[in-house]
């Protein structure tokens, strides 16, 4: 894995020979903009506060009240919730990140 | 939901980590080989407010680095505002300049706004550089600009476009670059684009291009031992004995992990591509929508051997290489994935008797 550090996120790029195949991106969105506190994501700062707040809201709703997120982002939110429940660092695959950003933008 | 968002496809999951941003097409030089035919500004170039608003779109697209180009980007009246804003957004910035506008206060502004890397074009020694640049004194002022920046800790890359004229002097130019204290020396063959297309005498033949490869290989280790990294740019390859092992080519990044923004807000995969390749206008759509629209760059993001042109289609490194630099492909072959400036092709053609570089389309 080649690590490309982007200050806003931690991005890990697997060095594929064919750059047209780019299902490679993992984004640690929590690293700088949020903290895990008592199993919940807490937004702390950053340019991407709105984005992180979106994640926080839906993950919390799912974990605390069993509320399913909107269909467009159900996959990404459940993936994040699984990481949170397992106590793992929360990471986003590129596809999940794009889906969440599209939802936020919409 | 804005209509544009409905078009967003998630099948492509890359991001424009590197943005080439033409701040203005205005230029104080009229270089004979300028690929952009720069001189006058474009009609309706972005205002400072528009450009600053555009910066705010970069973080969500994970933009990591923005390179200011032109024209002469330091003639743009708001370049420092953009540099400062990008610094605040944690995005690295660099500038490619002809060096003429670089004065003490310019360097101070660069440092204040976090612009810590600069590329300066030098195409040879004084008489040669000035003749190509079309302005007497251009060499001395460029050298002065380089010295100023180096003395203040800005990382300078000297950029040399190799032509039939300066090829025999590459070794001496290397010494010049070393003497200036530059960190890197970027080498690229002349691109037959813009004004560079008009003068056939500057263009490298197969034999000259191969000689360039040999010289760069021979200069690499001695230069590195003296603190200068030679950086063969796009269109210096591919998959040949002359490739630098630390810079393995993995395909053109344009439209896949880099993008070009024109000074009037139009968007291309690479600023060296012709205007017919524009995929969107930032005055009509935002960058996210343009980047992820299904038709944008689809021929670059996924393609087969059958879609490749020239000698690339039959090359055994075709799929790994992708057909080289797309700007050179379009300029020299008139097709995508078909860069004829290729050491591998030339070496193979010499053993098989295949034809040399074609004339520009």
Labels describing this entry:
heterodimer; A: 106 residues; alpha+beta; four-stranded antiparallel beta sheet; 22% strand; disordered N terminus; B: 361 residues; alpha/beta; ten-stranded mixed beta sheet; globular
Question: Which blocks of ≥5 consecutive residues of chain A have pLDDT under 50?
Answer: 1-34
Termini separation of chain A: 33 Å
Structure annotation, total helices of chain A: 4
Uncertain spans of chain B, ≥5 residues at pLDDT below 50?
1-10
β content of chain B, as a range?
5-15%
- Show the largest interface: A-B, 29 and 29 residues
Structure overview:
The complex is a heterodimer of chains A (106) and B (361). Chain A is an alpha+beta fold and 106 residues long. Chain A contains four helices and six strands; from the N terminus they run βββαββααβα. Chain A has a four-stranded antiparallel sheet. Chain A has a two-stranded antiparallel ribbon with strand order 4-5. In chain A, α2 crosses α3. The radius of gyration of chain A is 14 Å and the shape is globular. Chain B is of the alpha/beta class and 361 residues long. Helix content of chain B is 32%, strand content 15%. A ten-stranded mixed sheet of chain B has the order 7-6-5-4-3-2-1-8-9-10, with helices on one face. In chain B, α8 links the parallel β6 and β7. In chain B, α2 runs parallel beside α3 and α7 runs parallel beside α8. In chain B, 49% of the residues are buried. The N terminus of chain B is likely disordered.
């Amino acid at each position: 894995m080649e690590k490309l550090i982007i200050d806003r996120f931690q991005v890990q790029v697997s060095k594929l020979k064919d750059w047209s195949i780019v299902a490679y991106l993992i984004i640690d969105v929590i690293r700088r903009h949020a903290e895990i506190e008592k199993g919940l994501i807490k937004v702390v700062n950053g340019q991407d506060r709105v984005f992180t707040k979106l994640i926080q809201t839906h993950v919390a709703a799912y974990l605390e009240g069993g509320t399913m997120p909107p269909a467009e982002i159900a996959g990404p939110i459940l993936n994040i919730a699984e990481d949170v429940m397992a106590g793992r660092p929360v990471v986003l695959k590129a596809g999940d990140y794009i889906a969440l950003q599209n939802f936020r933008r919409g | 939901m804005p209509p544009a968002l409905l078009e967003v496809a998630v099948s492509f999951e890359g991001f424009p980590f590197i943005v080439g941003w033409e701040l203005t097409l205005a230029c104080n030089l009229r270089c004979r080989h300028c690929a952009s035919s720069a001189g006058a500004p474009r009609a309706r170039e972005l205002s400072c407010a528009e450009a600053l608003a555009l910066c705010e779109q970069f973080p969500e697209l994970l933009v990591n680095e923005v390179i200011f180009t032109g024209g002469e980007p330091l003639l743009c009246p708001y370049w420092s505002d953009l540099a400062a804003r990008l610094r605040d957004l944690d995005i690295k910035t660099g500038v490619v300049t002809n060096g003429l506008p670089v004065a003490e206060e310019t360097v101070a502004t660069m440092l204040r706004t976090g612009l810590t890397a600069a590329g300066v074009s030098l195409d040879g020694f004084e008489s040669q550089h000035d003749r190509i640049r079309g302005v007497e004194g251009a060499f001395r002022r460029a050298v002065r600009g380089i010295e100023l920046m180096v003395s203040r800790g800005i990382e300078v890359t000297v950029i040399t476009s190799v032509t039939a004229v300066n090829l025999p002097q590459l070794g001496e130019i290397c010494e010049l670059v070393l003497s200036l204290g530059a960190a890197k020396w970027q080498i690229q063959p002349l691109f037959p684009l813009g004004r560079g297309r008009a003068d056939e005498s500057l263009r490298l033949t197969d034999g000259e291009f191969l000689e360039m490869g040999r010289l760069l290989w021979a200069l690499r280790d001695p230069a590195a031992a003296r603190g200068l990294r030679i950086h063969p740019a796009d269109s210096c390859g591919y998959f040949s004995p002359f490739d630098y092992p630390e810079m393995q080519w993995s395909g053109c990044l344009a439209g896949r992990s880099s993008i070009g923004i024109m000074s009037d807000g139009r968007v291309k995969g690479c600023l060296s591509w012709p205007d017919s390749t524009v995929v969107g206008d930032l005055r009509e759509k935002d960058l996210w929508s343009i980047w992820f629209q299904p038709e944008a760059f689809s021929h670059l993001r996924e393609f087969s051997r059958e879609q490749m042109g020239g000698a690339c289609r039959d090359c055994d490194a075709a799929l790994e290489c992708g057909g080289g630099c797309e700007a050179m492909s379009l300029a020299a072959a008139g097709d995508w994935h078909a860069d004829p400036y290729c050491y591998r092709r030339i070496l193979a053609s010499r053993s098989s008797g295949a034809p040399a570089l074609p004339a520009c389309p």
